[in-house]
Structures are given as structure tokens and as C-alpha cells.
Amino acid sequence: MRYLGVTIWVKVLLSIGLGIGLTLGLVNQVGLADTPDQPAGLTEPAPSEPNPPPVLPYTYARVVTDNVLVYETSGITPVRSLGAGYVWVSLDHALPITHNEQTWYAINPDEYVQADQLALFTPSTFHGVTLTTPPERSFLWMIFDMWASSEPGVPAGSGAPLFKRYTLLQIFEEKTVAGRVWYRVGPEQWLEQGNVGLVKPAARPDGVGPDDKWIEINLYEQTLAAYEGDRMVYATLVSSGLPWWQTQQGLFRIWLKVKQAKMSGRDGYPDYYFLEDVPWTMYFYKSFALHGAYWHDKFGLKHSHGCVNLPPHDARWLFDWATPATSKYNFTLSTEENAGAWVWVHE
């Protein structure tokens, strides 16, 4: 939507990748006799003011009808069609306007779409945690609501505690039963691995320097951890590529950062997509990127065309933290003097 004046080669680069892709619940204290407090060193990013503004700059909407016409200011002459597929737009104004007894949304300067063709969406408010000290234990987020079992490998009993999606818990013990791993998160409280996203401190990959910034993406767990050398500083949930659009594995470096741009692809196919104003994108291998995803709240589950979807708050944190350092321009290329952070993608 904005930044339409970017040069053609950058437009091409930014058009070939798609990552489709709650307030964070800190540790549930009820019954956790193993620990007096929440996991040591894990903190929610604190707002800098009592009522901080939303992290995303726009209101977003999905186009609910194929081939929706876009009109100029008059509302009489169509100027283009939005096409058929998975199409999202960002709105110049969050409130609709009335013209010629019809209700419209402005999606660009002098471009309007009838309001009943759009479904407004509230982006996910889930976000990860900063780590002020090395974690004493591995920790996890709930991906699905689950009643805890009193023992590993057995169904939950009557009166079992319910742990809600996006709850953050630390792990005190793990056991394998019938090929499945179970984690103890409290006294007689066991959770099966398929319901959680695990974060476990990882060793620095070969080739990454002791002072380098690097990002670990665990495709099995659908989690991300950011490191400075050997110290974990941030962790969150992600959504990587679906089985038929798998995220590329390997050790890479961020080669391009883009503050905001559209993404589109699969033209002519049923899964055509067009996403306006995708925020805080970091390309690490060809068209594969980490970026914010305002169009879903399924973090912890695979949900993309290959990119690594990030909750918006986490996307901004990582974009500001990771190298290459950005400037006033919309995009920043990595250079020898301003090299990109490492990205390690693995199962």
C-alpha cells in the first residue's frame, strides 16, 4: 500500500515470499510447589507508558469476496480489481465513510472499497519473553488447552487443572511413555509434547562467533530463541511453513531487512495471496524470511507458505535487535561492515 515508489528489483524480491502465517499468560502459580515464583529470568516486555499505542500502525481487513472492485474518490468509476484469493488490505482510516448512501473503507489515498466486502481483523496480541538471566530450566508455551495428567501417559482425571493456550510454564522433569515425551510442570501435573511448544537452550552453531547475534528456529517445536553469543535473550512462538511449503533448513545470515512492504504470490493458482503492509521482514535465504503476521493468531502451529511468521510484537523486537542495523530507509541490505544476524533453522 505505502512504499509504492520502491525500485522494481526490490518489488520483485518482496513479492516472492509469503509467510502465512492474547496476552501472554505467565506461569500459572496454582499448585506449583516446585517453584516460588515465575521462571527465573523470564519477563514480559514492559510498556514504556501506561497506555502504549498498538504495535502495528494500521487497521487490517480480509477481502471476503473475490474480484472486489476498487473505486476512486467519487465511488463511481472502478480503477482496479483486488483479484481472487487470500487478499488482505490495510486501511488508511479505521472508521468507514458514507458516500452516495453506501459505506466505504479507504484502502489507499483515493481508493475505496465497499465496507461489506471487508472483514476487519484484530491481530494477535500474544508475545514472547525477554530473558534477563540464563533460564534455570527449559520452558514451554501451551499450544492447545489441556487438562494436566497426574502421571505421564495417563488421561487427565476429574478435577485436573486446565492449562490454557499461550500459558507459559517451566519444566521440572520429563519422561517418555510409548514414544511420547511428557513434561512435568508442577506437582502431579504432566503435559504431553504434542500440546506444547518447547524452548530449550541450544549450543551455538559452528561458525557463529562468541559475540554474534543469532536466531534459532525449531521447526518441530514451532519456537524461536534469540541469542547474543551463548546467552539466550528472547524467546517466542512462531508459525513456519506447512508440509507442502516447508521452511528451508540450514544456517544462514539475514541479507535484507524491510520495514514494511506487500507480499504476493501463487498468481493463477487457488492459493493466490496478496498481503498489504507486511511488517518487519528479515530475509535470510532467498525469499524465505522472518516477518510479522497480522492475519492470524495460530502461533505455535505451522501455517505459512514457507516464511517464519512472528507475532507482531515479537517481529518488531527482533527487527530492532537483529543486524544489519537499519536506517531511515524502508529497506537495508547486509554488508561486510553491517553484517546480518545468523539464522539457524532446524527440526
Summarize the structure.
By secondary structure, this protein is mainly β.
Question: How is this fold's topology laid out?
Answer:
Layout: H1 8-15, E1 42-43, E2 59-63, E3 69-71, E4 78-81, E5 86-91, E6 97-99, E7 102-108, E8 111-114, E9 118-121, E10 129-131, E11 139-142, E12 146-147, E13 162-163, E14 168-170, E15 173-177, E16 180-186, E17 189-192, E18 196-199, E19 213-218, E20 223-228, E21 231-237, E22 250-253, E23 256-265, E24 273-285, E25 288-292, E26 308-310, H2 312-321, E27 331-333, E28 342-346
Parallel strand pairs: 5-24, 19-28, 25-26
Antiparallel strand pairs: 1-10, 2-5, 2-9, 3-4, 6-7, 7-8, 10-21, 11-14, 11-18, 12-13, 15-16, 16-17, 19-20, 20-21, 22-28, 23-24, 23-27, 24-25
Q: Strand fraction band? A: 35-45%
Gross morphology is globular
Work out the radius of gyration.
22 Å
The CATH first-level class of the domain at 8-21 and 207-346 comes to: Mainly Beta
Q: How many extended strands?
A: 28
Rounded mean pLDDT score = 87
How would you characterize this protein structure?
The chain is mostly beta strands and 347 residues long. Among the domains are: 154 residues, L,D-transpeptidase catalytic domain-like (Beta Barrel), CATH 2.40.440.10; 63 residues, SH3 type barrels (Roll). It contains 2 helices and 28 strands. A hairpin with a 4-residue loop joins strand 19 and strand 20. The two termini are 35 Å apart.
